[in-house]
Amino acid sequence: MKAETVLFLAPSISLVKQTLESWADQAKIPFTYLCVCSDNTVSSNINDDEADISVSQLGVPVTTDINEIANFLDNTKGKVRYIFSTYQSTDKISEAQKIAKDTFDLIICDEAHRTAGLRSNFSLALEDQFIRSKKRLFMTATERMVRPLLKRNAEESGKVIFSMDDENTYGPLLSKYNFGKAILDKTISDYKIIVAGVKESEVYNYIAENKHLKVEDLDENSKTQSAEILYSKILLAKAMREFSIKKTISFHSSIQRAKNFVSENGEEISLSSVIREFNQNIESSNLYIDNINCQIDAGSRAQILDKFRNSEFSVISNAKCLTEGVDVPIIDSVYFIDRKKSLVDIVQACGRALRTKKGVAKTAYFIIPILIPESSVASDILHSEDFEIVYNIIQALRDQDNRLEDWINRLNSEYIATGRIGRSPSGYDPVSVQIEGVDIQQFSEELYVQIATVNANPTDTQKKQVFGKGERKTGHSRIFKTIGDFSFESFIKNLIDPTINIFRDKKRNIMSGTDLKYNHNNVSHTFRLGLTEKDGKNYKLTPLGEYYLDGQIKPRDLFKKQMLRYSNTLEDQRSQRILFPYRACLEILKGLESFEPLTFNEFAFCIYPMYDSTEESIQTAIEDIKYLRKNYPKLEAINMANQPQILEVLNNHFTTSLTETDIWGAKATTVKNQFMYFRNHLSLFDEVIVIKNGNICLKTDISAKDIEKILSVDMGIEKIDKKNWFAKYTEVFIMLMIFGLV
User: Fold this and answer.
1) Digit-coded pLDDT (tens) for 252-265
2) Model pTM?
3) Whether residues 535 and 679 fall in one domain
4) Which of 562, 587, 615 is the last residue of a domain?
5) DSSP of 635-681, one letter per residue?
């Protein structure tokens, strides 16, 4: 593209230095350059732990003088010229460009995820109103998307916010180099996630047996802190022994915790002594342990990293300052001692160990220590707060590694088909469990189930779907409909009672639809419930409507009775097909002879497609549900990657035409609405039905006879012809004792 005037941006002086040195080494065309940065680049908040070198260590002249930058742009026209700058100094470049009236051919944004978020110096280069450029190139290992809620909040408060999925700002994706592809190309090293656990008893026994630590002199809080620090030391020492690890950087939630981990103050069992005790081949002379943080000057940090490189075995602790801008290819493990929730930080931290020297094969280990309470079982451990970081690390790497994504998809596919997961599929297993005293095979299988569900989908795929006109409709032509798409409570309060009250207030038995209109649905749904009937262009109360107006029946009992009478009709070339949807649901629940919950998926594939409520159709629905339960016992756990294939199989088997939106889309789709309202309506039969976890369940203390008793009311209605059905539907109840209406 023949870019002669280029602005390169990075978040730290050290990255500017690395880039300038590499650029100069690889450049085939002579260029002139200017470095724009200052020591203000470094955060003044020590809690950020964002360490950087000083401008004096850049090794070349630097400036933040606006006129000097403008002169550089004016006096070097016609030459290949580059400005290397930190994001923090872009305001100076913006001001200088106003003076020079110049435009960059290209802006390169390194660690471009730092530009996303609220408008700041980090985002000035995104907009021509601040820094003009013909082209922009964004490079990052961790694309950052801003959640829709944050976008809305920013817009409502008048703030500008940037998200890397906005093509208007960031443009289309030019190239993506996946971790998996880079590993196959041997550009970066392969990795293994190590879940390392130790029982509490082992830690306390170790403390008790250590002669150098006088436990009796410590209060309970100090004992607990000592145990917390010690177990992470023991697990690192064991991992070094088990996997021949030599170079480790550990990440902590604060600078102080990072310091405590490597300190040798006499009050703790030192990391050095623990490592040497578990690794007989390691001695004090070939083991280097230290801490790096933003409070240490750049010269001292460089010396620490040199010692780290040159020692045979090394451990450096930090909070965050080694996340970016550290190029030490010999690092072979990252130790996540404290929980990390930022997926960006996790990927950046893992990246420290993925770098490799050309021609040198290695495996990077990402180690997560877990303290195991004595009485814990696998499910307790896997659902604990401490275990959350395991899923966070897997999720962060899943978004970057197509191999890991494929592996999780296979786990998910096996789980939805069998309800369990055996050994890792295809022999590839990026996770290793190292916990003494537990059944590793059983623990791993339960862990696979958690990964198959918790890490089922890529990050930022669970966005709320926005529908256009008609897009809420299902792909299935339906007859299976509720008596009304409202909850029972809303049906009575907002539709039925206002209509009946108008009849009562007007003291008239016949009224026009206009006079009756209270809202958009009250007239039609009062008619649908059988309380009114048409009289020409008007409406009048039915015998049942008059009965309700006089207060002789309660709303709940009215609704239950009418559900059992309600039907839909389908006319086809062969015959008239009648479906009593609520009666059919109860018949199916009875016929399943199981207290297993009726799920949405079972409703969608096996009940929703019904066209009539004959014995044959009901039996078909029962067999279909049994098939689904046997062959796809965990269908609700399916991930996005497996959805198209499984949906095609199910549609072919059940001869349905349901779409991914129908089954896995937003709640507002028609089929999900129908299940939601059927569930709400059927819950009124609380003598036999209970709702659990959003599913329809039979009470465990009932029998088929209890359902038969409900269905026996108006039992003959299914055999009445269409002409006489409405009269039956709108007549006053006779067997009132069934619902306790006396």
Assistant:
1) 989 999 999 999 87
2) 0.70
3) no
4) 562
5) GGG--GGGHHHHHHHHHHHHT----HHHHHS-TTSHHHHHHHHHHHH
